[in-house]
Design a protein that fits this description.
- The protein has six helices and four strands.
- The chain is mainly α.
- Helix 3 packs antiparallel against helix 4.
- The chain is elongated.
């Protein structure tokens, strides 16, 4: 996976994994491959455990109530997961940046990818553009990649559900 300047791919992968946690190492490998990640080593149960821990830390970033807290949490993840940036063409797929040491396990790769991708997304798009759906009973996490930066819902279904709820509330109030 090549990181784009906004961290969109990495943040969307993190949200997908957080919203539906992989249950096995094989499922984690399959979902990472489907997202375009090149796997250099077999995926193990230790990788799965590491990814679950990374997602726990990342959800604290999502749920942070202000920008400074969010930045501090991302900075902690960056300090714990990344190395100096380096150019690589490890898979002969073109030169790109890695923010990690070479020959890492998938758990470590995803930790660095999620931390850097989240930092790039928040710095490039806005500190408010990572959140949970605005529908109270929906806990889905999403990265707001909309042009306006005002996305409130994880899906059109939730947006419609909330619009119907507001419409019905206004009719009974009036």
């Amino acid at each position: 996976m090549h990181l784009n300047p906004y961290g969109e791919d990495a943040v969307n992968l993190a949200a997908a994994l957080a919203n539906r946690r992989p249950e096995t190492a094989a499922e984690l490998a399959e979902r990472c491959r489907a997202a375009g990640l090149m796997l250099e080593h077999p995926v193990t149960a230790r990788d799965l455990d590491r990814v679950h821990a990374v997602l726990e830390a990342w959800e604290k970033v999502v749920d942070a109530t202000d920008e400074h807290e969010r930045a501090e949490l991302v900075n902690r993840m960056l300090a714990d997961s990344t190395a100096y940036p380096r150019l690589t063409d490890h898979a002969r797929s073109g030169w790109h940046l890695h923010y990690r040491d070479d020959r890492q396990t998938l758990g470590s790769v995803l930790f660095a990818l999620i931390a850097v991708g989240t930092a790039l997304h928040l710095a490039g798009r806005g500190m408010h553009r990572l959140r949970r759906c605005a529908v109270t009973e929906c806990t889905v996490i999403f990265a707001d990649t909309s042009r306006t930066g005002r996305q409130r819902y994880c899906s059109q279904r939730c947006a419609n559900r909330d619009a119907v709820r507001r419409h019905r509330a206004s009719r009974t109030a009036g």
